Amino acid sequence: MSESLVETEGAAASPSPRSIVYRLWNGVIPPEVCQAVIDSFADEELYPATIQLASRPVEVVSEQRKTKHTFIEPGHWAGALVSHFAHLANLLWRFDVTGLGTLSILRYDVGDQFAWHVDALSYNSTDYGELGTGLERKVSVTVNLSDPSGYQGGDLEFMNGVGQLLAQPQLREQGSVVVFPSTVGHQVTPVTSGTRYSLVGWMVGPPLR
Fold first, then answer.
1. What is the distance, to the nearest Å, from the Cα of residue 68 to the centroid of all Cα atoms in its chain?
2. Residue 177, SS3?
């Protein structure tokens, strides 16, 4: 497991947990399990993913986010993987989380991308069923399901609090799990060949105070 930090000049003390942009477990999920997640939804119809407009609570299809996806019930066994690593990472940040609010599988084909964004929603009117309403995305999880030899581009990259680009080759490893606060800026660069699958989920909780 590795962590990526916001660098502070001349800092001698241990960094604050808030300075850790993401936590990474590279290649921790076996390829067979990754393929099983993909196969579970091979017959599902995938739909164009949307973004939420910052000006009002409307979700639209946009060139900013070109990928197809389908939502998965959080009770699906893949949700246990996401929740496990989210809770491990959150031992550091200690966000007040209620549970896994949303789970989705994404497919990036040639030309697909997701430009710089954060996962925290500007307007949160989502009904999370038994978890309740009025909850915010606190912790984001991405699992890279695809063998990196099967696609080019499609890199998951982060921006830290001082504007530095963070990109690790380990983020491309099949079965790598990266967990980060939902307010952290990140992107998926355009896929130039092949297909990339990922499993994503968001832990939600009461609004930040």
1. 15
2. strand
* 22 in a structural domain: no
Copy the structure tokens of residue 206: 């009461």
Q: What is the pLDDT of residues 146-180, one digit of tens each?
A: 999 999 999 999 988 778 888 888 899 999 999 99
> Residue 130 in 3-state DSSP?
helix
What is the reported pLDDT for 177? 97
The count of structural domains within the chain is 1
Structure tokens at 42: 């091979």
What DSSP state is assigned to residue 15? P
- Domain contains 5: no
Residue-range definition of the domain harbouring residue 196? 31-167+178-205
β partners of residue 78: none
Per-residue pLDDT at 126: 82
Query: pLDDT value at position 11?
Result: 46
- What residues contact 194, with CB distance under 8 A and at least 6 apart? 110, 146, 150, 151, 152
Classify residue 144: in a domain, yes or no: yes
Q: Where residue 58 sits, what CATH number does that domain have?
A: 2.60.120.620
pLDDT < 50 stretches in the chain: 6-11
Longest alpha-carbon distance in the chain: 54
- Dihedral angle computed from the Cα positions of residues 103, 131, 204 and 85, in that order, rounded to the nearest 10 degrees: -60
- Residue 157 maps to a domain: yes
pLDDT for 8: 38
Token pair in block for residue 15: 């960094």
pLDDT value for 137: 95
